[in-house]
Specification:
By secondary structure, the chain is α/β, with parallel strands linked by helices. The protein is 36% helix and 17% strand.
Length: 423
């Protein structure tokens, strides 16, 4: 699963994000086969190819969740080998996430609770366990799911008018998927507000653990292998999940212990871990450890070619919000970004983005002005960096969330991306 610069709505808050990204593409070659001799051409007419199956209809949210869950549980090909008669299958739920950003929200959290209750009440073959390192180490079944905004063509581009619910049940022992569930839901009744950890997180970057989770759930079928990016990191992910749960409850000291423990694991170098260490230290008033943790956040983003850092702007302005509770860490963030970027000797194209509300010419202008403002602030913190940056604005043409709410749920639509370019 980009931080963002952007215009805000009635709430009077705008968010900016900084991103570094690098795209590599390739293509396959085609080879023409020799023509079939006329005498060997078959005289029978080939059978018509089977048309692709139509996607499921868009349903009311509650009905869509029930439809996807029922398909998942009823069609599960449960392993029989090594299981005693009448035995229950232990299942853990790795918290469901947004399929574009990787964030957990009020909606995904509620869906996870509903799935757990369904298994307990209607499917006695399952024994729901907590998603903890101790339980994951026993190689149970694991349930994952993504909840992704889509447009009228069922694609993740432009204004989103529905949600795609994708569920998967996997067996950690065999390393394969046992079942899938898919449904499309109307947005009515959906609360996409991010949980506190994801709302407070200062930055976003692509994370292999999250990428593996999404790839395991999306574009797969029963019998397919679990994506290795996810399988290799699930033990550390369970510790991260416990840290997020502690953070949500305001137990910041406990959360810090979980994040620190996760970082020490072989697969613990995850972006959520670095964000968590920063957040917990900041909440505990530990300013120096928080600054050091944010430097690690920046290092991770630069290493993975993409970093998004959140800044809240005044509506229609390039000035930060005047609320000290929100903007107090910004000078330190800017200093760290400038220092790490300056030392990397890379050249950047800084591109501003906005939400789709308002006239697009105004959105494009505002996105450019905010990109230029961040460019100027970074240059003030690192001599020589000015000549290695250019600014650009694209308005709302490249939204990631696209729900047009202009609140915390679509914060990543209001971003400034930093793309590595040739010097």
């Amino acid at each position: 699963m980009t931080t963002v610069f952007r215009k805000t709505g009635a709430a009077g808050v705008c968010l900016a994000a900084l991103c570094l990204s690098l795209l590599v593409t390739g293509c396959d070659s085609l080879q023409e086969k020799p023509a079939t001799p006329a005498a060997t051409i078959p005289t029978t007419t080939p059978a018509a190819s089977t048309p692709p199956a139509s996607p499921p209809p868009i349903q009311a949210y509650d009905k869509a969740v029930l439809s996807a869950a029922t398909a998942l549980f009823k069609n599960a090909r449960l392993p029989a080998e090594g299981m005693p008669a009448q035995a229950k299958y232990p299942v853990v739920i790795d918290p469901l996430i947004d399929g574009m950003t990787g964030a957990q929200s009020v909606a995904t959290q509620a869906m996870g609770v509903r799935l757990a209750n369904m298994m307990r009440e209607q499917y006695p073959q399952f024994d729901v366990k907590a998603f903890s390192a101790a339980n994951v180490a026993k190689s149970p079944l694991v349930l994952i799911g993504t909840f992704t905004g889509v447009n009228a063509e069922r694609k993740t581009a432009g204004p989103r008018s529905a949600y795609r619910i994708c569920l998967a049940l996997a067996d950690l022992r065999s390393g394969k998927l046992l079942s899938k569930g898919l449904a499309f839901a109307l947005p009515d009744g959906v609360d996409p507000t991010p949980l506190a950890f994801f709302r407070d997180a200062p930055a976003w970057s692509e994370d292999p653990a999250t990428e593996g989770y999404i790839k395991t759930c999306q574009g797969t079928k029963a019998g397919d292998p679990i994506n290795p990016l996810y399988l290799d990191r699930i033990l550390a992910a369970s510790v991260v999940a416990e840290g997020i749960e502690a953070y949500e409850a305001g137990r910041y000291r406990e959360a810090l212990d979980f994040y620190t423990s996760a970082l020490a694991m072989p697969s613990g170098d995850q972006f959520r871990v670095h964000n968590g260490i920063y957040l917990a230290n900041w909440k505990l008033g530990r300013r120096q450890p928080a600054e050091a943790a944010f430097a690690k956040v920046v290092d991770y983003g630069l290493k993975h070619q993409r970093l998004a850092v959140k800044f809240l702007f005044r509506p229609g302005s390039t000035a930060f919000m005047a609320n000290p509770a929100l903007s107090a860490p910004y000078p330190g963030w800017l200093k760290a970004i400038a220092k790490q970027t300056g030392e990397s000797s890379k050249c950047l194209e800084i591109t501003g983005h906005t939400s789709p509300t308002g006239p697009e010419p105004l959105n494009e202008r505002l996105s450019l002005l905010r990109a230029e403002a961040i460019k100027s602030r970074l240059a003030q913190n690192s001599s020589g960096l000015e000549k290695r940056m250019i600014a650009n604005g694209v308005g709302s043409r490249q939204t990631m969330v696209g729900n047009g709410r202009d609140d915390a749920s679509d914060a990543l639509d209001r971003r400034v991306e930093f793309k590595v370019i040739g010097c």
